[in-house]
TrEMBL record:
PANTHER family: PHOSPHORIBOSYLAMINOIMIDAZOLE CARBOXYLASE-RELATED, SLL1489 PROTEIN. The lineage of its organism: Bacteria, Bacillati, Bacillota, Clostridia, Eubacteriales. InterPro entries: P2CMN_synthase_LarB (IPR039476), PurE_dom (IPR000031). One of its GO terms (molecular function) is hydrolase activity. Residues 121-252 form the PurE domain. It comes from the Bacteria. This is PurE domain-containing protein.
Length: 252
């Protein structure tokens, strides 16, 4: 997005003509590096740059994609589902060691730091239990990376409803809420019944046998009786945070 703004500013000042603007846009829709095609126009289309999904990629491939993004003037890069071994290889790269931070609990790495926070409102991230925190941290760090304020409210599930009610002021003042729960997934409906803002429910794979690795929570959340609750896939903290960030920026 910054490149586009610079190009438009140069056009307004008369430093380049219309043909040069069109040429620049044609030249940079994506960069093919063989095993990956970096979408350099993602930020123009969606407002945020492409995010690297680390699972299934080798450390060398991830490093190569990061290098390509940096060479194409991307200042802030997020890598999701990154294990310790790949993260170590990334951080050990000489040109990345000082600008890369790895968050092992969330399985995320950030190159170049978070984008500046540019919203007044905040995203509340609420978990049913401590076991849901890895998914919650994926959501929280993703949301912060995307320029949002985040309020963490952890371990307030319906097994002890008074814990949730003690945070009622924070819940009701939020601009978006991400409700994260495994087991039977009841937290999303309870939060949805208390909040006046959009609620994004994230089922987690936390639970005993009949939870079916999150399927039980997913179905419960999809059948929520509270209005204004949407649902993302099992353990998808990143997807919830991305959606929440889009809502938060529109509301702000």
């Amino acid at each position: 997005m910054d490149d586009l703004r610079i190009t438009l500013e140069e056009f307004k000042k008369g430093n380049i003509n219309e043909d040069e603007v069109i040429l620049r846009l044609k030249k940079k829709p994506f960069v093919d590096i063989g095993y990956a095609s970096f979408d350099s126009h993602r930020s123009i289309l969606q407002g945020n740059t492409e995010v690297i999904y680390g699972a299934g990629k080798t450390a060398e491939q991830i490093i190569g994609i990061v290098r390509t993004m940096l060479l194409n003037d991307e200042k802030h890069i997020l890598i999701t589902r990154l294990d310790d071994e790949k993260a170590k290889a990334l951080v050990n790269e000489s040109y990345l060691c000082d600008v890369t931070k790895y968050y092992p609990e969330a399985r995320l790495a950030v190159v170049g730091g978070f984008k500046p926070c540019d919203t007044e409102g905040y995203i509340a991230i609420v978990t049913a239990g401590t076991s849901d925190i890895p998914v919650a941290e994926e959501a929280a760090i993703t949301a912060e990376f995307l320029g949002n304020k985040v309020e963490r409210i952890y371990d307030v599930g319906v097994a002890g409803l008074h814990r949730l009610l003690s945070h009622l002021d924070k819940i009701m003042a939020a601009d978006v809420i991400i409700a994260i729960a495994g087991m039977e997934g009841a937290l999303a409906s309870v939060v949805g019944g208390l909040a006046s803002c959009p609620v994004i429910a994230v089922p987690t794979s936390v639970g005993y046998g009949a939870s079916f690795e999150g399927l039980s929570a997913l179905l419960s959340m999809l059948n929520s009786c509270a209005s204004g609750v949407s649902v993302v896939n099992i353990d998808n903290g990143f997807g919830a945070a991305y959606q929440a960030g889009m809502i938060n920026h529109k509301r702000g």
